[in-house]
TrEMBL record:
<keyword id="KW-0249">Electron transport</keyword>
<keyword id="KW-0813">Transport</keyword>
<protein>
    <recommendedName>
        <fullName>NADH dehydrogenase [ubiquinone] 1 alpha subcomplex subunit 13</fullName>
    </recommendedName>
</protein>
<keyword id="KW-0679">Respiratory chain</keyword>
<dbReference type="InterPro" id="IPR009346">
    <property type="entry name" value="GRIM-19"/>
</dbReference>
<keyword id="KW-0472">Membrane</keyword>
<keyword id="KW-0496">Mitochondrion</keyword>
<dbReference type="Pfam" id="PF06212">
    <property type="entry name" value="GRIM-19"/>
</dbReference>
<dbReference type="GO" id="GO:0005743">
    <property type="term" value="C:mitochondrial inner membrane"/>
</dbReference>
<comment type="function">
    <text>Complex I functions in the transfer of electrons from NADH to the respiratory chain. Accessory subunit of the mitochondrial membrane respiratory chain NADH dehydrogenase (Complex I), that is believed not to be involved in catalysis.</text>
</comment>
<keyword id="KW-0812">Transmembrane</keyword>
<dbReference type="GO" id="GO:0045271">
    <property type="term" value="C:respiratory chain complex I"/>
</dbReference>
<feature type="transmembrane region" description="Helical">
    <location>
        <begin position="45"/>
        <end position="62"/>
    </location>
</feature>
<keyword id="KW-1133">Transmembrane helix</keyword>
<comment type="similarity">
    <text>Belongs to the complex I NDUFA13 subunit family.</text>
</comment>
<keyword id="KW-0999">Mitochondrion inner membrane</keyword>
Length: 142
């Protein structure tokens, strides 16, 4: 269609005057077009992963419970032993306290021997001090 289209000029008057040329598929047809998504199945499925994690967590909770029971048994055993030994330890603490008190009074008598009217062991205040009842498990007096 390189001719100039003018009225009355000989040439092509319509598109229908063109020769018919049609593209055809190759013999045997075109290959089919793949439109579905085909991904390779790599790795375990979601259900398998979930089941594996559930099994691991179940085993972990089982071991945690067993450890808690063992710790509870050991704590009960320690508590029972402490209850048995407590009177002996308290007696030892009382003896240490009395020895400490005796040394303090001897020191007080030595330091205050020149003060007239001083009584060794008398309190200088009106408050009464008592040793702690369960102090056997703390540091001993020096």
């Amino acid at each position: 269609m390189t001719e100039v289209v003018k009225r009355g000029f000989p040439g092509m008057k319509s598109v229908k005057d063109l020769p018919i040329v049609q593209d055809a598929p190759p013999p045997g047809g075109f290959p089919s077009i793949r439109i579905e998504r085909r991904l390779p199945s790599t790795g375990p499925t979601g259900v398998a992963i979930f089941a594996g994690l559930a099994a691991i967590m179940g085993y972990g909770f089982y071991k945690l419970n067993a450890q808690r029971e063992e710790k509870r048994f050991e704590a009960d055993e320690i508590h029972a032993v402490r209850q048995i030994v407590k009177p002996v330890l308290q007696a030892e603490w009382d003896l240490r306290y009395l020895e400490h008190l005796r040394k303090e009074r001897e020191e007080e008598a030595r330091v205050m021997k020149d003060v007239p009217g001083w009584k060794v062991g008398d309190s200088t205040s009106r408050h009464r001090w008592l040793p702690p009842l369960e102090s056997w498990d703390k540091r001993p007096l020096v």
